[in-house]
Design goal:
The protein has 13 helices and no strands. It has 332 residues and is mostly helical. The chain folds into two domains: 72 residues, no CATH class; 234 residues, Orthogonal Bundle (MetI-like fold), CATH 1.10.3720.10. α5 packs antiparallel against α6 and α6 crosses α8.
């Protein structure tokens, strides 16, 4: 196992290098980050030359990539280059946004996984039952709805709930503009009330879409394993249905959903862009949109590299879990 992990990490290095070069090329294609600055008012050739020298944009593409990559691996992720915000380290804002996104997606992914797997297993065991048809219909309805529609419906519902609470003398609970950067203040009970009001809608929004995906994959995988020869043989030997389902079928049926969830979770650390935008969260999604809008190349690069690293890490975790769940899989 240790040798396998080391091999995968060594393979990941050239993948990250290739990804970084591609990402650097894509950020260069965004355009000149100094264009807007030059149009604000007339600039002298000396001012323009100094600005390009400060940002490094007076160098060829390959030289700029080598400079950035060399600093990146040593922990220097670059600085903002757009005048007015120039010199601000990318890493500080990036990790602040990452912390916000981390708090948002962890609970949502756990809830979606648990619900999705539970509903998928029950639907497979009770195939073509009323429960299965109902769960399938709900899942397809959730899966077919665009994420921004779900977010806007939930936000409108939250505002209506606040109005109703206010009409009966209660406090407005649902917060639709995200938690403040320095956190909520007050007693422990007040903070629980405020944080729950801030988290509930974006969490439900993410759970709705992911739950539909996980439940469909779990049901399909579970149906395949329930009809496998080794499960039928176990039941023919007198093993109870519950034990044959959870000891034999469920364990192997987890492999496809681990693949899907590892990709979703890895990519999720890149930020739920639509959810964060609708609910006013200053996470990785907003960080990326702001960086692209301002044409901040090193902020976009930082976002892409963090996302790439987490996707590779969670794929590695998935590969290790495969061998644990199915002894037939070897990692030699």
């Amino acid at each position: 196992m240790f040798r396998y992990i080391i091999r995968r990490l060594l393979i990941a290095i050239p993948l990250l290098i290739a990804a970084s070069f591609l990402c650097f090329g894509l950020t260069a294609a965004m355009g000149d980050p100094l264009d807007e600055w030059k149009l604000q008012k007339p600039r002298t050739p000396a001012e323009v030359a100094l600005a390009y020298e400060r940002t490094g944009y007076n160098k060829p593409f390959v030289e700029r990539y080598v400079d950035w990559a060399g600093k990146f691996v040593t922990g220097d992720w670059g600085e903002s280059v757009v005048p007015g915000n120039a010199g601000k380290p990318v890493k500080d804002d990036l990790f602040k946004a990452f912390t916000v996104t981390l708090r948002l997606i962890v609970a949502a992914e756990l809830i979606a996984l648990i619900l999705g797997m539970a509903i998928g297993v029950i639907g497979a065991v009770k195939q073509y039952s009323i429960f299965d048809y109902t769960a399938t219909g709900i899942a397809f309805a959730m899966f077919s709805m665009p994420l921004f529609c779900v977010a806007l419906i939930l936000k409108a519902g939250g505002i209506q709930l606040n109005n109703w609470l206010e009409s009966i003398g209660g406090d407005r609970w649902i917060i639709t503009a995200g938690p403040p950067g320095d956190g909520f203040k007050g007693s422990f009970g007040e903070q629980v009330f405020q944080y729950s009001g801030a988290y509930i809608l974006p969490t439900i929004c993410l759970v709705v879409i992911q739950f539909a995906l996980y439940s469909r994959f779990q049901r399909a995988s579970m149906l395949e394993t329930l009809n496998a020869d080794y499960v039928r043989t176990a039941q023919a030997k007198g093993i109870s249905q519950g034990r044959s389902i959870f000891r034999h079928a469920f364990r192997n049926a987890l492999i496809p959903i681990i693949t899907v969830s590892s990709l979703n979770i890895g990519a999720g650390f890149g930020g739920a862009v639509i959810t964060e935008t609708v609910f006013g969260w200053s996470g990785m999604g907003k960080f990326l949109i702001d960086a692209i809008t301002k044409k901040e190349p090193y902020q976009v690069l930082g976002f892409m590299m963090v996302t790439a690293v987490f996707i590779i890490v969670f794929n590695l975790i998935a590969d290790v879990l495969y061998a644990y769940l199915d002894p037939r899989i070897r990692l030699d």
